[in-house]
Every structure is written in structure tokens, then in C-alpha cells.
Design goal:
One of its GO terms (biological process) is hydrogen peroxide catabolic process. With 414 residues, this protein is an all-alpha fold. The protein is built from 16 helices and 2 strands. The structure holds protoporphyrin IX containing FE.
Length: 414
């Protein structure tokens, strides 16, 4: 792992402060009792924390002196390059939804009642291990890991925990969602034994969906507003019966992809991040769109409904609350190195024309030129034009006239 690599990094601890505090410890180390006494002094106890960090660096990195520079959990330059590679991946695979789900399922195991890392779960990269990928709630996420692995292999200075969150955040933004106030520097767990036990993620069809959502998300330290806002991520993606057991095998919106065809989406334009998830659940107008019991609960429970109604009306309010909640979710349980995290800022080409995943959403695609010509020919054959559509009752009028004429003829005949 790259945690203690000597690779160049823009975020190096100033060696002066480290070495000077460390030298002080070495001169003091002859007297363990005075050390203990100093350790407990609130004014300087933080220096001992630094000492521990320096000692760890020496033993793990094999550097000759405690003042040797150290990279943090992830390297900022590599994070930025990885983000560009993720954008390329999104352009070619349309995998925005599954990458978001991967990041959420790594973070969503967090238990605020457990203090120790990594037992508390959360965004620590544990979802890369087979034992956790095999949890029922994670069915299909191995595909997301496979997509990201080449990027991980290319950037040894990016932890899995960061890569999962970077991928999810980039996917939201690239699908037209809000800019997320993310930070990086998450430390990875190192072995499968550090994975959380199964059962920490929500179930889509529990006996009492609203109570269940509260039980699971309150355990993560999230509130009703955050539950509703985060559920809005279902504006993207599909559910597949062969993975979660929920949804139809295919619908008019998913049968042609993009990406692997099939599944049932919550919205018609399921690669476009907007507030249509809330609008569509509220209107319940299309049998081809999915509403899980936990989605329906957002409009049934009085406290959830306040937010769900608001987001259905006001996309800006949804984007603001979603951005805050997503960033909070992505930090749950994470151990940051450096402790304050690393902010990588905007892409250099942020101003350039954005890839809009929405353009590729099924069910709303532009007609091909050949199809337009075919439609025009059909219209012209019956004397109309696609630019000036026929009156809807055109044929009905003709039939009525014929019927009236036939009736009159028969009267005259009598
Ligand atoms: C509120 C409780 C939640 C439940 C019960 C739930 C349940 C589900 C289920 C059953 C699927 C279908 C998986 C499949 O068959 O492949 C799914 C997909 C998805 N979920 Fe959730 N989810 C919840 C919350 C969230 C949150 C908080 C996020 C993100 C912030 C999220 C993001 C997604 C995305 C993007 C997909 C689509 C994945 C794809 O198309 O491959 N979900 N969810």
C-alpha cells in the first residue's frame, strides 16, 4: 500500500516541525517517568501524537531519520489524474450509477456507536474484499470494482477508500448533479478480517420501511433530511432482479442500455441527475418506473414527506441538501491522513463542455435521420407532413361523412 511510500507529494509534513519535536522526544527518552508526566500535560500532549506518527513512519517506511518526508494516505496529484481517468471510464461505460452505489456501500456500514477504527465501519476501502462483496446487499458491485481496478493499479498513491468516494462523486457531477464538497486522504483497511459484519446496509422491503430507514441511517449519524436527500441518488440507475431481486428484467427505458441493457429504473432519464426521482414517485404515473417500499416511505412518513415534497418542487433545494449529505456520507468512519483531509479542487478543464450522461438516457433518444425520413414518407403517403401533423379526428370525420351519406342514400332509396 502507498501509505508510507516516498513518492513525491504536494502535501508533505514540514520536516522542520517534525524533526524538532522528535529530537525533543529523543533527548527526553532517558527518563520514562518525566515522559509520562509530559505526555499527560494537555498543553503539549499533541506533540506526543506527532512523535507516534514519526515513529510509525520510521518503522514502516524504513527511512533513516524521523524527519524523512512522507506521503499522506493518497497523493493529491494522483487523485486529480485518477479523476480524469474516471471521467473517461464514465464516457465509455455509462457506469455512473454503479460507481455511486459502490461509494455509498463502502461508507454506509458506519456505526457511530463504535469508536475504534476500523471496527466502526465506513469509508475505509473494505468493500474491495471478497468477503464483503459477497454480502447480499452488495450483489453486483464486484462489477464496479472491476471497472475501477485498472485505475487503482495505475495510481498506487490513491487508496481504495478514496478511489471509491472519488468515483462516486465524479459520477454525480458528470451526470449533471451538484458539485460536491469532497475531501480525500482516507486510509485503507489492510485485510479482510477488518470488514464489517453483514447486515449494516438498508433493506429495500422491510416490514416497516420508515422505521427501518431511521434505524439504519440514525446509526450512521444521519437525520431525516439526509435520508430523503440521499435517497434522491436513485434518480440514477436501475435495479436488477438478478442482483437485488427488485425491479423488472427490462423496461422501455432500459432495454437498449446504454451500458448493459435491462433492469428497472426509478426515472426515465436514468443517467441524468435531477429531481425527477421525487416527481416520479409523487405522480406514480408510469408502471415502467420503480418505486421500492423504502422509496414510497419518503412520501408516506410525515417527517420524510416534508423534504420529499420540497425536493419534488425545488431542484435547487434538493441539489444543495444532496451535496452536503453526500459529502458527509463519504466521510463516515473514515480515518484521514492528514487529519484535515486533502481538497483537490476543480478539474483543469472544468470550464470545458461537459459530458452530459443525460443525453444517453434510454427512452429519450434523438431519432436517427433514417427514422425521420421513414416517418416523413409515411405522413406524405396519406397527404400529411410531420411538420403539420394531421388533425387527430381526420379519419373519424371521413368515416362520419361516409356514414351520413350512406344513411341519406338509404332514406332517399326508400
Ligand atoms: C435508503 C435506503 C436504500 C435502499 C433500500 C436502497 C436499495 C437499492 C436497491 C435494491 C438497488 C438495486 C440494486 C441492483 O439490483 O443492482 C439500488 C440501486 C442503487 N442505489 Fe440504492 N438504496 C438506498 C439508498 C441509496 C443511497 C443513500 C444511495 C446513494 C447516495 C443509493 C444509490 C443507488 C444507485 C445509484 C443505484 C443504482 C445502481 C445501478 O444502477 O447499478 N441508494 N439501491
Amino acid at each position: 500500500m502507498a501509505l508510507f511510500s516516498g513518492a513525491a507529494s504536494a502535501r508533505i509534513i514540514p520536516s522542520v516541525s517534525l524533526s524538532s519535536s522528535s529530537r525533543a522526544f529523543f533527548s527526553l527518552s532517558s527518563s520514562s517517568s518525566s515522559l509520562e508526566c509530559l505526555r499527560s500535560s494537555p498543553r503539549i500532549s499533541h506533540l506526543f501524537l506527532n512523535q507516534r506518527r514519526a515513529e510509525v513512519r520510521v518503522s514502516s517506511g524504513g527511512y533513516g531519520t524521523v524527519s524523512a518526508p512522507k506521503s499522506f494516505a493518497s497523493d493529491p496529484d494522483q487523485l486529480k489524474s485518477a479523476r480524469e481517468d474516471i471521467k473517461e471510464l464514465l464516457r465509455s461505460k455509462f457506469c455512473h450509477p454503479i460507481l455511486i452505489r459502490l461509494g455509498w456501500h463502502d461508507a454506509g456500514t458506519y456505526n457511530k456507536n463504535i469508536e475504534e477504527w476500523p471496527q466502526r465501519g465506513g469509508a475505509n476501502g473494505s468493500l474491495r474484499f471478497e468477503v464483503e462483496l459477497k454480502h447480499a446487499a452488495n450483489a453486483g458491485l464486484v462489477n464496479a470494482l472491476k471497472l475501477l481496478q485498472p485505475i487503482k493499479d495505475k495510481y498506487s498513491g490513491v487508496t481504495y477508500a478514496d478511489l471509491f468516494q472519488l468515483a462516486g462523486a465524479t459520477a454525480v457531477e458528470e451526470a449533471g448533479g451538484p458539485k460536491l464538497p469532497m475531501k480525500y486522504g482516507r486510509v485503507d483497511v489492510s485485510e479482510p478480517e477488518q470488514c464489517p459484519e453483514e447486515g449494516r446496509l438498508p433493506d429495500a422491503g422491510p416490514p416497516s420501511p420508515a422505521d427501518h430507514l431511521r434505524q439504519v441511517f440514525y446509526r450512521m449519524g444521519l437525520n431525516d433530511k439526509e435520508i430523503v436527500a440521499l435517497s434522491g441518488a436513485h434518480t440514477l440507475g436501475r435495479s436488477r432482479p438478478d442482483r437485488s431481486g427488485w425491479g423488472k428484467p427490462e423496461t422501455k427505458y432500459t432495454k437498449d442500455g446504454p451500458g448493459a441493457p435491462g433492469g428497472q429504473s426509478w426515472t426515465a432519464q436514468w443517467l441524468k441527475f435531477d429531481n425527477s426521482y421525487f416527481k416520479d414517485i409523487k405522480e406514480k404515473k408510469d408502471e415502467d418506473l420503480l418505486v421500492l417500499p423504502t422509496d414510497a416511505a419518503l412520501f408516506e412518513d410525515p417527517s420524510f414527506r416534508v423534504y420529499a415534497e420540497k425536493y419534488a418542487e425545488d431542484q435547487e433545494a434538493f441539489f444543495k441538501d444532496y451535496a452536503e449529505a453526500h459529502a458527509k456520507l463519504s466521510n463516515l468512519g473514515a480515518k484521514f491522513d492528514p487529519p484535515e483531509g486533502i481538497v483537490i479542487g476543480d478539474s483543469p478543464n472544468a470550464g470545458a463542455e461537459k459530458f452530459v450522461a443525460a443525453k444517453y438516457s434510454s427512452g429519450k433518444r434523438e431519432l436517427s435521420d433514417a427514422m425521420k425520413q421513414k416517418i416523413r414518407a409515411e405522413y406524405e403517403a396519406i397527404g400529411g407532413s410531420p411538420d403539420k401533423p394531421l388533425q387527430s379526428n381526420y379519419f373519424l370525420n371521413i368515416i362520419i361523412i361516409i356514414a351520413v351519406l350512406a344513411f341519406l342514400t338509404s332514406l332517399l332509396g326508400n
